[in-house]
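User: Show me a protein chain along with its predicted structure.
Assistant: Here is one chain, sequence first, then structure tokens.
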Amino acid sequence: MGNHTGFMQYERKAQPERKPMERIRDWNDYTAPIHDKDAQIQGARCMSCGVPTCHVGMEINGVTTGCPLNHLIPEWNHLVYEGKWREALDRAHAKNNFPEFTGIACPAPCEGACVLGISDPPVAIKSIERAIVEKGFEEGWITPNPPKFRTGKKVAIVGSGPTGLAAAAQLNQAGHYVTVFERDDRVGGLLTYGIPEMKLSYQVVKRRVDILEQEGVTFKTNTEVGKDISVKVLKSEFDAIILATGATVHRNIDVEGNQLKGVHLAMDFLHQNTKSLLDSNLSNDQYISAEGKDVIVIGGGDTGTDCLATAVRHNCKSLTQFDIYEKKGTERDDATNPWPQYPIIHRVEYGHKEAASSLGKDPRAFAVMTTKFVGDESGRIKEVHTINVRNKIENGKKVREEIKGTEKVWPADLVLIAIGFTGPEQYLLDQLNLERNNNSTVKAAYGEYKTNVDGVFSAGDMRRGQSLIVWAIHEGREVAKECDKYLMGESDLP
């Protein structure tokens, strides 16, 4: 490294955020890329570790640590520090087709595994990554690069989320004709309709999709495989098929009253809002509005936080987020959550800040379990009943104990359920007669991605279950290589 003591000289500085009360008035990006000079200083904080762990993705006790893409993080940190932005961009693209997506939407397990993070705030890796790719677009370095030859082989990719897009990018570069089928009206999957506009702008997704189109990838939107086009036609017209539809079956809450009007799945709320926003700037009223309502968000994860931020922008009356777990500490527990595991700590995310600024307090209620929903005479939600719980481990198993006397009734006009996904939708898998795992995901071995049907591959959340964007891109690149081997007998794809 060019500056061996930078980690002692400089403090961590991540990408700046606009003030909450300013940003909740619009749907623009709530962050901005870090300035070039600040990115260089952050690059100087990289420690020249003897054994860096930021770029080695793995799972420890079911939690991701390090980058599954095996990003060349120490290399591009050093190059940014030296001002060699073009070379840093080449390193960023070497392992990741879309560093702008991860530089914005990834939870950064790389930072959780940063060696500097053992004793100090970690290197702002995610912010540097975003700065690199935005510099690349500004300078005109990121341009279409069509393959120099075509193999004549045709590949169908079902699903245009990060897995499908990564597979498409790689297979197109290998010279195959790639067609991506997307049932929605816009490409991007959950990148477009699962992540709100102020967190990941559709224009960021479209910018990269436009390049892929110019490189020769064909996108067919409003086309649902298995309904609008049969799997029989797909198998007859293409030499290989990659399934990358994600894990889109929502986990619902099994309590009395969950069918009342005003109780919605979080992804329906987010999807409709983004579509209406992109179609008409919300003027067509084709979305679930939180305006003037007492809103309850059930689920303490990222999707729940996105619901908070969206409801605040709708100008809701009140806002509460139920988290089934107790409030965590602000420092990692070295006994149960040691480095380099991703730090399981109390975080104040963008939606929490916005809700606190707009409504006067952090919206979260911890260790709260919903017991039932109660509606009015018209069948519309009016109350949510809860009880506090104690989470503990008994005989190696997680046990949830209800605490008597903590029952509470919350007024509610809108309830958003954000407790994750159970797996992929099954109708397409049924039509292809695919073997499945016990959790309903497609049975296809990691590293091989082959299903029980010849020429049909599966990767991403559809195969592994709900996961991170970096795992999605990683599996998209890997399944492309395996598909290329199937078509050509060997593969030079990285």
